[in-house]
Write a structure and sequence with these properties.
Length: about 500
Amino acid sequence: MSTSQHTFVLAIDQGTTSTRAMVFDRAGRIVGADQREHRQILPRAGWVEHDPMELWRNACAVVEGALGHADVQARQIVAVGITNQRETAVVWDRATGEPVHHAIVWQDTRTQPLCDELARDAGPGRWREVTGLPLATYFAGPKVRWVLDAVPGARERAEAGELLCGTVDSWLVWNLTGGAERDGVHVTDVTNASRTLLMDLRTLDWDEAIVAEMGIPRGMLPQVRSSSEIYGTCAPGLLGGIPVAGILGDQQAAMFGQACLEPGSAKNTYGTGNFMLLNTGTEVVSSTHGLLTTVCYRLGGAPPVYALEGSIAVTGSLVQWLRDNLGIIGSTAEVESLATSVPDNGGAYFVPAFSGLFAPHWRPDARGALVGLTRYVTRAHVARAALEATAFQTREVLEAMDADSGVPLTELRVDGGMVVNETLMQFQADLLGVDVVRPVVAETTALGAAYAAGLAVGYWSGADEIRRNWGEDRRWSPRMDAGERERLYRTWAKAVRRTLDWVDADTR
């Protein structure tokens, strides 16, 4: 069927390992998509960087590719939505558009000494009440400070008003709306701003005292806006004149795409890392069990909606590590067949604390460990242990979420690249003891960004239409004996303890 008479929404999904563009119709279906991977720059242990110019070039390329695959003209696009890897920080020159350093990725741990220094006697929870976050290398603010300290002349240029900073959404929107040539719009949305360690959860603006203490000139920071409004229009070119109207951090976008719009609803995204969010409504719920309090979304001038989040650093990227670093598999798709060639993990447990442990532990001193090895263990057992690590870490987060919210989940909606792995999904249901549900459209991150943009321009009428678009594709119910479930989880907890207190002051 020709699409020439129809209109669509375009979403740009700039992720940790690749950039995608997707064209969606009114039913929330994908009519065209394109994707490009980008380099993972690893200068030394614990450091992870991306080239911002490569991210921007790839974004332009996949937009053109998605429109071509959809057989859609740019004039049929009514709005553009952006979703992005959240805590990754970019610092660039306002006049030239040139980054002053590679983007420092959310997984990067180089800012640990700075976080320790900022924590002082108050500890990592020093700003948790204001920001909802612990002082940790995960977040964007310390990364910007590191660039200002490490790049010769950067601080002086920043204080002179010559440099801008932001998370990847800010970088993309600034370039889309004209960049250096046309004075691009310098904005971010509340979800991304809530991941910087610089935003007050209640005022939804930068906390001046924390910004000053972090050592970041206030003029570098983008304006904080809602997640669904017209920020500006695309500069002349392929998308010229089309409004940029939605921004959501990737995990909040997945929440929106999953139609988790009611308090108590939750989703888990299985990507480079895993991210479980629980909608807590308009209430700021402080965690006492190692979770983050974050902004879920804000639609225009409506009250903000908040969430509790459990962030796990390494899940899908562990499978990539088996492929790229160890050569155990030739492609990520091979991990399932290799894992299912054995009936269990053979006693091996893999704790992928490559960047320390995130939620609910928040232990930067941890490092990865493969334990329980005997001569019986084969590469197939290692592959199975790697898959199971994702499910074990998810259970840790779910237990923390139950404890914080007081409302045990009855089912878990899942999305992301790993949900095609049916072995993992069944093991996840077994380990949690609740149903795991995959939606028809598994690319919920891009869909959520499209929804935010489409709502801002009236393409979709409201939340009810989004709920109607959601559909169930597959459901996994628990089959494992409760005693076996608890035995496995008890052994996993023992493995986690083996990873702690590994990093010393002189560890490299």
